[in-house]
Structure formats: C-alpha cells, structure tokens
Specification:
The complex is a heterotrimer of chains A (253), B (284) and C (305). Chain A is α/β, with parallel strands linked by helices and 253 residues long. Chain A is 36% helix and 26% strand. In chain A, a hairpin with a 4-residue loop joins β1 and β2. Chain C has two domains: 44 residues; 249 residues, Orthogonal Bundle (MetI-like fold). Chain C contains 13 helices and two strands. In chain C, β1 and β2 form a beta hairpin. The chains are: A alpha/beta (253), B mainly alpha (284), C mainly alpha (305). The interface between B and C is large, with 89 and 87 residues.
C-alpha cells in the first residue's frame, strides 16, 4: 500500500558515548504524504530515531552505523550539507520551545538564517505557515507580541508553523502534544491530517490512543528495535507479535 | 535546664555574630559618607572641568578625569571583544577536556595576580619589549589583561544561563553554530555580559599599580594628544596629591577622592540595575 | 538551489570557519597571558642571580643605593601585615557571611550584601587616602606612637580590602548548602545555631576555606593602600611588637622604586625578582584554593548522584 518511500532506513544503529545502544539494526521505509507513527514504551529509541533523521544527534557524541536514504542520498554522506538537510527535514519537540522573540520573528528566523530579507516573502511565509498550523486567526492581530505570551497549545502550533515556514519535505514531531490539553491536542491532530497532504510526517505520538487516531503507518518500537509495523488499522486490530498486543492492551510498559 | 542553656548559647552567639556584622558594615557607611561629606564642598563645575594650577594645589582635575575615561574606553575596546570571545569559547565550543581545565585554572590565576605584578609585566612587555613607551596604549593593554578574567567569568556564567533548548531549536531549524550564538544566545546573555563588563572596567578605573610604570603621568600641563602620550588618571592623581605634594589643600584631596569614589559607585549601581532589570525582563 | 543560495552557503561556511577560529584562539588567551607574565618575570629577574648570591638576598638590609638587596625586611613586612589583616578579616568576614546567609532577616540581607559589595568597589587609593588622613592620626594619638603610619594601620585597611572577597565567596558557599540538610537538622530538634555550627558550616567548609585563602591572597597582593599607610621603612619585623612600627611590603617596594630605577640595572632586576615571588605566591594560593573547591564539588556530586 505504500510504494513511494520518502525515507529508507537500512540497518541503522545508534549508540551514545556512555555505552547505551539506542537503536539496533533498524530497517524501515517511511512513506511520502502519510503519517508514520513511532510508538512504544519510553526508552524505545523513538526520539533517537527522529533526531537521527535530521542529524540533530550530531550535537551529541554518538556512533552511527547503517544508512538513511532521503530520496536518493544517504544523509550521513560526507558531502551532505547538514544545514540544508535540517531545512528539508524539520523537527518539532515535545515541549513547545518558542525562541525568545516575537511571534513573527519566530517564524521568519529560519528564513533569515538562509539569507531571505525580502519583506513580502517573509510576510507571505508568516501568514502561510500560521494558516497551515491553524494558528493564524488567533494571532494575526498580535504578530509582534512575545511568543511567550501564547498558551501552551498555541506555542506548539507556532513551533510547527516555524518549521513549516522553511518549506521542508519531511516533518518530524517528537510527542508534540504531550504537554497540551485535549482541545489543543485535537487542533494539532487535525492540522496534521491536512499537513500530510503536502509533507511526509513522522511522529512519536504521546499515547497509544493518539497513535490509533492518526497513524497511516504504525511502527512499534521496543528497546531500540522495531518489533512490527503495519497500517494503523491492521496493527491495532490484529497485532502479529505478542509484545505488541500486550503493549496495546495495556498489560505491558 | 539544658534546653534553656542551649537557647541561651544561641542567643549569645547570634548577638556576637550580629555585632561583628555591624562592626563590618558601619565603617563602610562611615568611609563612603565621610568622603562625600568632606568632598562635597570642593566639587564644582570648575573643579571638574579646569586644569590644575599652582603645582596642583588649586584649579581642577579635568586632565585626570579625561585620562581615566581614556583608559577605561581603551581597556574596554581591547578586553571586551577578547573576554567575550573567550567566554563564548568556554561556554559554546569547549569540551570538558584537560585543556579546558587549564584555561579555567589560568583564568582563576589571572584574577588573583597582584596588580603591581601586572604593572611589572606591562613595563616589561608593552613599554620596553614592544617599545610602546609609557603611554595610554601600554596602560590600556596592561589594564586589559587584568580586566579580562572578570569579563570572561561573568560572561560565561551569563551564556551558560541561556537554556540549552534554544540552541537545539535553532540548530534544528538549520542555523549554524555561530548563527545560533549571534542571533539567540548572545542577545539573551547580553545583560549578564554587560554587568560583567561594567564590573571589570570599574576595577580598571580604580586601579593605580598597573599604570604606575606603564602610562600614568605625575602632572601634565595639557591633555594627551595621541594614544602614545602619557596621561593623568584619577586614582594616580589622588595618590600623588595625598602623598607626594607638600602643603596640598585637604579639600582638593577630598574632592578628588569624592569624584573617584562617585565614578566607581555609579558604575557599581549601573551594574546592579542592569542585573535586576534583566531578572525582571527575561522570560525563561 | 539557485546561485544566490550557493553563494550564501559558501559565504556562510567561510564565515563560520573564520569566526570559530577567532573564538578558539581567544579561548586560550588566558593561558597565553599567564604564560607570558611568567616568562617576562623570569626573563627580567634571572640576571639577579648572576650578580647576587642567595645570601645577599637572604639578608636583613634593603638599601639599594649602596647595593644592599636583602629582601628579608620586605618579606617579613608583607608577612606580618598580611597576618595582621587576616587576623581581623577572617573572623569578621566569616561572621558577616554567616549573618547574611543564615541569620539576618531578608530586609537586612538586602542592605548588607550591597554594602559589602560597595566596600569591594572602593579603589585602594581611596582607602589609602582615608588611612593617611583619618586612621593614621587616630592610631598615633590613641596608641601614643611616634607615627600613625604603621604596619597595624596597613593591616586594618587591608582587612577592609579582604573582607568583601571573604564575605562573598563564603556566603555563596553557605548558600549552596541544600536546604534539606538544614530542615533535617531542625526537624531533629537542633537549634538554629546548632544547625549552623554542626551542619551548614561543615557542609560548606571547603567554600569557607577557599574564601579565606582568596581573601588572604587579595591582602598579600594589595599595593597602593599599604604603600600609602605603612610608613615604608624597610625594617625587619620580628614579633607582634613590629605591628606598631613602620614597615614596608614587597608590593610597595616595587611600586615605590620601579619608577626611579634605570632599566636593566641590578636594582631593576631585583624588583622583578620580587614580582616573581609575588606571582608564584598568588599562583600557589589560587591553585590550592581551586583544588579545594574542585575536590569539594566532586564530593558533592558523589553525594547527590
């Protein structure tokens, strides 16, 4: 059912410098224009996998083997420009972390880094990305206010908008609704449904229920290994592995 | 009975400690107020803005004031970029290695070197070896080396206080390390850095020993023309008129002390207000 | 990717490289400066030992005009004045730190802390000036001395310069003791003083020790104040009685004489040797102080992990 993988992960292993093995021999095809949900108990390697996909782990001392093909290039190749990679593969974190700027500046920040100075372009990006993350109507009259004045849910949608402004191809979300109330969570989830039409979305959901609600492809991870994967419906109605079943039914983890 | 005596002991000990603190605090108030009280009558616009006359026994202290301003500005021009860059290295680039520990040890030691030793070093390196002569530039270089450890340690502290998550977010959006520092980390750390800069330069403004042989002049009939001239400076001037000039009117001495102390205290208050302004303003 | 963006990428990489190089070099500046200072002091003091024997230096007469370069009077002067200052500054400094950190109500703390900081900011010449005009006459009259410019006068003022260092470092150390320690002691029925004496102070002892050492380091290196108020007579100090005569320190000797010597003369080199001694003393004090702190931090990490 997914015959157009955007990212192909081959035998990816990641170890931290304190000796812990975060990922072991992970193989996975991530489809384009769909929501891929990584789920499983804490410490299963979901965050590590997400952070490896745009090489944010470069900031830490990690040892990596295997390959991650984004379209046709291995992102670990020596001649890959990490900066461009991070623009193509944007990431949103569990905690909404607005930069200490205004709402507008939070969104234009990434574009300005790349040297974009044309006011019209920047304004377009602000409006477009805020509309995509369903925040525009709430903040359009106070774009120059501090981003810290927003509520938690608004901040998280701002963080999504900020990444969208860079026009990435892949959107990584690491438990993006973990700190949010149910209403904000619903807003974020519904905007993801719209976003997947244009982007490849990889998400580590905050709960099993959320996985079930949004996953096109659901991937169960346990202690750094992929246990099984399948379309969201299949996996939740008829899990093949015993561990998956135990986790889904709540007898585990 | 034992209970009672325990509490008696406490009361006595607290009284002794409290009295010792009062004995520490009261002289400070006396020092500052007596200087200002006795100096107030000497300080006037003429005193501030005129050249000294009659072998410094009358007239003003303008060349000493302007000299101290030259020295502070010059020291800032050298020590701020170097100190802040060094702090950025320690906070943003350096790994926790043997060499980093060496740097930290060097900073601690630099901060503890007696000021007169800085003077000797400045004489040896800048005045004689580099042949800058006894000059404003040699004095500024000497004062800079003395100021740098203060700036480095406060600036590093301010940089480290900026949450790590801001850096991760910025890099995650495709910023380089330097872009992240310049656009996110530095602006957030600025007030803290400013506090350190003011404290460091304050020390430079009040020091005498490092400039004794590197650029301070006993008396100059006119203002310095270039950075290769000697200059008068407030602290050295106070030293000169209170020990080297016979029959010096006490009012001029007090007046000079008042100006120097006011200069230094205003800088201190400035640093303190920047610090509290920053605490109120910041959002993290 | 259009040509402008490629240019941007190249420019960005170059900028990044250059900036990082500058920052890395600056990072090592402190090490370079300490090294340079040591080097120059060594270079300028070495000729001393070609011309003078150790016993010429290790003698009791400092009279450079006739080539007597015995540094013992200066060493003993520095020593006794520093000891005198420490004798005053340590108890008063530590008690003030305890008072601010543990006993004083908040409003009093808000007054005392800035006040002590003000003292730390008073330039040494201003203290020296007050020493000459106020303290010295007082010492002379009250103690019936021929002159008020004595080691004792210097020691009192030096204590004033050391106290801010001692208070601020010791107060930081006391402040860093986890509140849980105090609560536990109080919950067991200890009085506040017992808590301070048996729990808080021992827990902060390395910081308190560091504070003391740095304060003393400050006193040894102080120049202008002692030069102005100790009378500057290079006499041998022997015993407590010497506190009430005029003495001269190593720092004051350099400051007073360096301006008048010919560059490259023996006198010049001897003064640099004294500078080298001061440098080594401050190095020892600071390295020991930071080693004490470092060990203490390790211990805390072990306890808390």
């Amino acid at each position: 059912m997914f015959d157009n993988p955007k990212i192909r992960i081959n035998e990816l292993s990641v170890g931290y410098d304190d000796g812990t093995q975060a990922l072991s021999d992970v193989c996975l095809d991530i489809p384009e224009n769909a929501i891929t949900a990584l789920f499983g108990p804490a410490g299963g390697g979901k965050s590590t996998l997400l952070r490896t996909l745009n090489r944010l782990n470069d900031l830490l001392d990690v040892s990596i083997s295997g390959e991650v093909m984004l379209d046709d290039t291995n992102i670990f190749d020596r001649n890959v420009d990490v900066i461009s990679l991070r623009r193509r593969v944007g990431i949103v974190f569990a905690q909404p972390i607005p930069l200490p700027f205004s709402i507008r500046k939070n969104i234009t920040y990434g574009l300005e880094l790349a040297g974009e100075r044309r006011r019209a372009k920047l304004d377009d990006a602000v409006e477009g990305s805020l509309r995509s993350s369903a925040l525009w109507d709430e903040v359009k009259d106070r774009l120059d206010d501090s981003a810290n004045a927003l509520s938690g849910g608004q901040q998280q949608r701002l963080c999504i908008a900020r990444v969208l402004a860079l026009a990435p191809e892949v959107l990584l979300l690491d438990e993006p609704t973990s700190g949010l109330d149910p209403i904000s969570t619903a807003k974020v989830e519904s905007s993801l449904q719209i976003l997947k039409q244009d982007y490849t979305v990889v998400i580590a959901p905050s709960s099993i229920q959320q996985t079930a609600r949004i996953a096109d492809l659901a991937v169960f991870m346990l202690q750094g290994e992929l246990v099984e994967w399948g379309s969201g419906e299949d996996l939740f109605s008829a899990p093949r592995e015993k561990q998956t079943e135990e986790y889904i039914t709540g007898r585990f983890g | 009975m034992i209970r009672l005596s325990r509490h008696h002991t406490e009361r006595i000990v607290f009284a002794v400690i409290g009295l010792a603190s009062v004995a520490t605090a009261v002289p400070i108030i006396i020092i500052v107020s007596s200087i200002f009280f006795s100096g107030a009558e000497a300080v006037s616009w003429q005193f501030l803005l005129e050249m000294p006359r009659d072998g410094m026994r009358s007239g003003g202290i303008w060349p000493a004031i302007i000299g101290t301003i030259y020295l502070v500005v010059g020291t800032g021009l050298i020590s701020i970029p170097l100190g802040v860059a060094s702090a950025i290295y320690l906070s943003e680039y350096a790994a926790d290695s043997y060499w980093t520990r060496m740097i930290r040890l060097a900073i601690v030691n630099l901060a503890g070197i007696p000021s007169v030793v800085y003077g000797l070093f400045g004489l040896g390196l800048f005045v004689l070896f580099l042949d800058l002569g006894s000059s404003i530039v040699a004095a500024c270089l000497t004062l800079s080396i003395m100021t740098i450890p203060v700036i480095i340690s406060t600036a590093e502290e301010a940089l480290r206080a900026v949450p790590q998550s801001f850096r991760v977010v910025s890099v995650g959006m495709g910023a380089t390390r330097w872009q992240t520092i310049r656009r996110v980390v530095l602006p957030q750390a600025l007030p803290g850095i400013l506090t350190g800069v003011i404290l460091g330069l304050n020390r430079a403004a009040g020091e005498t020993a490092p400039i004794l042989f590197t650029g301070a002049a006993f008396f100059l009939p006119k203002l310095p023309n270039s950075i290769f001239d000697q200059t008068m400076a407030l602290p050295y001037h106070l030293f000169v008129i209170s020990t080297q000039v016979p029959e010096m009117p006490i009012t001029i001495q007090y007046g000079t002390a008042t100006v120097l102390l006011a200069f230094v205290l205003i800088m201190n208050i400035l640093a303190a207000s920047v610090r509290s302004w920053q605490r109120r303003k910041r959002e993290w | 990717m259009n040509s402008k963006m490629i240019f941007n990428t190249k420019y960005r990489q170059l900028l990044e490289f250059v900036v990082e190089a500058i920052i890395r070099i600056s990072g090592y500046s402190a090490v370079v400066f300490v090294g340079l200072i040591f080097l120059f002091l060594m270079q300028e003091s070495l000729p001393t030992f070609g011309e003078l024997q150790a016993r010429d230096l290790w003698s009791q007469r400092w009279y450079p005009i006739e080539n007597y370069f015995g540094v013992l009077p200066l060493l003993s002067g520095s020593l006794i004045i520093t000891l005198g200052a420490a004798f005053i500054a340590i108890p008063f400094g530590l008690m003030t730190a305890i008072f601010i950190a543990e006993i004083a109500p908040l409003w009093l703390r808000e007054i005392l802390k800035p006040l002590v900081e003000v003292l730390g900011g008073v330039p040494s010449v201003v203290l020296g000036f007050l020493g000459i005009t106020v303290l010295a006459p007082l010492v002379r009259e009250e103690l019936y001395l021929p002159t008020g410019l004595t080691a004792f006068t210097g020691a009192v003022l030096l204590a004033g310069m050391a106290i801010p260092t001692i208070v601020s470092v010791a107060e930081d150390a006391l402040d860093a003791v986890p509140k849980a320690y105090r609560d536990a002691a109080l919950a067991l029925g200890a009085t506040r003083w017992q808590t301070i004496w048996r729990v808080t102070l021992p827990a902060a002892r390395s910081g308190v020790l560091t504070a003391t050492m740095l304060g003393i380091g400050r006193a040894i290196g102080e120049t202008m104040t002692v030069m102005m108020v100790t009378g500057n007579a290079p006499q041998m100090a022997s015993g407590l009685g010497s506190l009430f005569i005029s003495l001269r320190t190593m720092t004051a000797t350099i400051a007073a004489e360096m301006g008048e010597v010919a560059n490259g003369s023996l006198h010049y080199h001897v003064l640099f040797s004294i500078g080298l001694i001061l440098f080594l003393v401050s190095l020892t004090v600071n390295i020991t102080a930071s080693a004490v702190l470092f060990r203490a931090r390790k211990r805390t990490e072990r306890l808390l992990s």
